[in-house]
Design a protein that fits this description.
The chain is mostly helical. The chain has helices at about 15-30, 40-60, 65-70, 75-90, 100-104. It has one domain (about 15-90): Homeodomain-like (Arc Repressor Mutant, subunit A). Helix 2 crosses helix 3 and helix 3 crosses helix 4 (about 75-90).
Length: about 100
């Protein structure tokens, strides 16, 4: 595959997934309005991995053994990745303070 510079037209050999990532990443950078991105690699990889795991699990009707086989990873690796994603999701939601609990 030939090297591409950011912002250049996509080559004909670009896959639909690559096109989607390129397009959405461009939109994300546009939303930053010139501000430098923070931990961009981690952000993109976590979001892609989350979408991949969720979609494969859904396609496998929640069967983790089959999903792991489709992904080409072990069941233990899949369990670990799902636990990491669950932890990331929980830590992204701020916890309510005691005062909020009392007034709610």
């Amino acid at each position: 595959m030939s090297a591409r510079r950011p912002g250049t037209a996509a080559a004909r050999d670009e896959t639909p997934i690559q096109c989607c990532v390129r397009t959405e990443l461009g939109r994300h950078l546009d939303l930053l309005d010139g501000e430098p991105p923070n931990e961009l690699y981690r952000l993109v990889m976590r979001q892609v991995e989350s979408a991949l795991l969720c979609n494969v699990l859904e396609a496998c009707d929640g069967n983790r053994s089959r999903a792991a086989a489709w992904l080409g990873i072990g069941r233990g690796t899949l369990r670990g990745k799902l636990a990491d994603l669950e932890h990331d999701t929980r830590s992204a939601v701020p916890e309510r303070s005691t005062a909020e609990d009392i007034t709610s």
